[in-house]
Amino acid sequence: MSSETEQLRRLIAELRTAYAAGGNVMARARAIAGTTTNAVPSTLIAYDLQTGSYNALARANPAMNARWCSQLAGILAPWLQGGRSLLEAGSGEATTLAGVLAHLPAAPAHTLGFDLSWSRCAEGRAWLAERGVQADLFVADLFHLPFADESIDVVYTSHTLEPNGGREEEALLELLRVTRRVLVLVEPAYEHADEPARARMREHGYVRGLRAALDRLGARVIRDELLEFSINPKNPSGVIVVEKQGVTEGQGGAPTFRCPLTNTALTPSDDAYFSETTGLAYPVLQGLPLLRPEHAVVASRFQPRVPGP
User: Fold this and answer.
1) How confident is the model at residue 251 (pLDDT cuts 50, 70, 90)?
2) What angle do CA 58, 143, 147 make, to 5 degrees?
3) Using one digit for the tens of pLDDT, what is the confidence trace for 59-96?
4) Which residue has the higher pLDDT, 154 or 15?
5) 49: pLDDT confidence band, cut at 50, 70 and 90?
6) What is the pLDDT of residue 252?
7) Strands laid side by side in the 220-226 sheet
């Protein structure tokens, strides 16, 4: 067994034990890795284990969830006029996505959301259905998005970048790549927070310096401020709005899926997303597409399954 495989096996076992004991799963993962940052496998395991906790919080505090979602919808609404496409990057259990859709004046022409965890996507799909709103959910990696360049009119986050301290610029580059008109970042507001909040963000490995990173990338920031309302006052939320430059008039069509490994076109079917150019297939598990690079299957002879009548 390779050292990498052994480390992953240990990580899964120890994080499940820590979660069952009510411990801080991410802190335990950092201790195992001997680092102050949060690695993707640790984030995936921790978030998947916590599935259901976000919906439980929203159910227990409906007024709080409604206020949060209404605030975000107010920021997004001006950019969604005319039936544009919308993506929540890191949609989790869809507690924010469902609420945002409920508070928008009109539904976007295309609404999508993804998360690193399949379990949270499944929970989110049920949450959306319960509330009578529609969005296409799938599993994906923030750092390898399965979309063509400038494929989605409006992209937003809701504390999605949060655990990725140290990888701010990498994440921003990928989000900006797929955004056509505007990127809205709702994340921990380190630069606008007081010192106790900053100390907490540093302890948990949260993102910092998002505005500075955007400036280095030459992005056009048109808003950068602390939000009026944060769900957790110890972790104040800020908003940064980035308007893409050189955008043509009108709106994009349906978002175009691309292989996250090769950037070739993906053809969706009921059981896989397939790249005819490379022979790679991405499975669909109980209706949820698995579109992380790690999910790729070499399947040159794959034939899409035709849905039954």
Assistant:
1) low
2) 90
3) 999 999 999 999 999 999 999 988 799 999 999 999 99
4) 154
5) confident
6) 62
7) 136-139, 110-115, 85-89, 152-158, 179-188, 237-243, 220-226
Work out the number of other CB atoms within 10 angstroms of the CB of residue 190. 19
- The tokens describing 132, both together, are 């009578």
Helix residue ranges per DSSP H, the chain: 3-20, 25-33, 40-49, 53-60, 62-76, 95-103, 118-130, 168-178, 195-204, 210-216
SS3 99: helix
Asked if 100 and 77 count as a contact pair (C-beta separation under 8 A), the reply is no
Tokens standing for 197? 């909040």
Lookup result for tokens 């990888």: 167
170: left (phi over 0), alpha (psi -120 to 50) or beta: alpha
Higher pLDDT, 161 or 15: 161
The neighbouring-strand residues paired with 240 are 185, 224
Backbone angles phi, psi at 52, to 5 degrees: 100, -20
- Residue 94: the pLDDT is 98
